[in-house]
């Protein structure tokens, strides 16, 4: 085969979500190939998630590449990740995902460089690439999915913080809120500014209305406006602190049909400091898609390979060209 087969010049990128796992081979042009979507429960809800992930990866490679190794493997987790990006620290409501040194484990088992990161960081990498956002400067991503996801890029580097847990905007404490968050605290903004809350509020407020019809029909309802306001409080807080070049908005709720983008943008401008940053906030919208997390994980791996990740990378590259 003249192009050397499917792993020639490809990294294996895996995006583990709360319900689904997506895997694909990402080439240097950031296109994904042989993407598979399976339930993620057999990885998350088991005694030994590392072994379960390795079993899936081995199986995938057997099916898709005849067992040939990729140049690297890169995995996004719905979890916090250590500052050195080697260990999954914790995931809300997933007991098995505690202090897993999974990058070292995968590297040893597969013999190729392994990288891991938080899932939203992978999505921001994808979005900055697909929306042609320059790496220079500060870019933030705010993703209203099940939770309120957040990622911050500074000159192309994801901000990780002292413990690796920077960018947890969903856990912005708001005095006066009474719901208990998945993190254990009371009053995190995510308890009222997330897809989980929106779905619960919508089924309570608009019984009988299909979820997909709520935003198109009721985008001016007080309960919907209140929800948007809380999302805007979170975004405006981050905008005030970081004065970003670009705010990327995405996630299932924001990308849903009928989502009132103008209302949310106006709320953020109203809440942000005057005159700047309020008067000049650039909003862009994630194109999302099923492959965003996979491609983002692929970009992360390719960036690392280009930066001369490790001798193993060179060896693997040499082997794939032999
Ligand atoms: Zn919280």
Structural class category: alpha/beta
Overall domain count = 2
What is the radius of gyration?
Answer: 20 Å
Name the shape in a single word.
globular
* Strand line-up of the largest beta sheet: 3-2-1-4-8
Number of helices: 10
Strand content: 15-25%
Q: Residue share in helices? A: 25-40%
Give the second-level CATH assignment, the architecture of the largest domain: 2-Layer Sandwich
Instruction: Catalogue the ligands.
Output: zinc ion
Mean pLDDT rating: 92
Number of strands: 13
**Unreliable runs:** none
First-residue to last-residue Cα separation: 13 Å
Order of helices and strands: EEEHHEEEEHEHEEEHHHEHEHH
CATH class of the largest domain: Alpha Beta
- The H-level CATH homologous superfamily of the largest domain, spelled out, is ATPase, nucleotide binding domain
Reported for the largest beta sheet, the result is: 5 strands, mixed
Quote the CATH topology of the largest domain. Nucleotidyltransferase, domain 5
């Amino acid at each position: 085969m003249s192009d050397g087969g499917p792993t020639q010049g490809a990294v294996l990128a895996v995006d583990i979500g709360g319900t689904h796992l997506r895997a694909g081979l990402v080439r240097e042009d950031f296109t994904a190939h042989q993407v598979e979507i399976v339930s993620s429960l057999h990885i998350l809800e088991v005694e030994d998630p590392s072994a379960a992930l390795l079993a899936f990866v081995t199986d995938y490679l057997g099916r898709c590449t005849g067992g040939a190794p990729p140049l690297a493997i890169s995995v996004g987790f719905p979890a916090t990740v250590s500052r050195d990006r080697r260990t999954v620290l914790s995931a809300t409501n997933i007991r098995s995902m505690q202090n897993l040194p999974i990058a070292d484990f995968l590297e040893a088992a597969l013999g190729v460089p392994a990288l891991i990161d938080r899932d939203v960081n992978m999505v921001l990498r994808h979005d900055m690439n697909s929306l042609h956002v320059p790496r220079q400067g500060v870019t933030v991503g705010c993703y209203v999915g099940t939770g309120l996801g957040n990622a911050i890029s500074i000159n192309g580097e994801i901000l990780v913080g002292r413990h690796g847990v920077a960018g947890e905007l969903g856990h912005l404490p708001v005095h006066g809120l009474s719901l208990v968050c998945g993190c254990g605290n009371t009053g995190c903004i995510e308890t009222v500014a997330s897809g989980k809350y929106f779905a619960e509020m919508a089924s309570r407020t608009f019984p009988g209305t299909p979820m997909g019809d709520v935003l198109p029909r009721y985008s001016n309802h007080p309960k919907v406006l209140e929800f948007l306001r809380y999302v805007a409080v979170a975004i405006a807080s981050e905008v005030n602190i970081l004065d970003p070049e670009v705010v990327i908005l995405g996630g299932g709720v924001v990308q849903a049909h009928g989502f009132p983008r103008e209302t949310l943008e106006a709320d953020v401008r109203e809440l942000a400091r005057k005159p700047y940053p309020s008067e000049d906030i650039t909003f862009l919208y994630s194109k999302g898609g099923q492959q965003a997390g996979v491609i983002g994980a692929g970009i992360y791996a390719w960036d690392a390979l280009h930066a001369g990740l490790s001798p193993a990378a060179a060896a693997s590259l040499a082997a794939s060209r032999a």
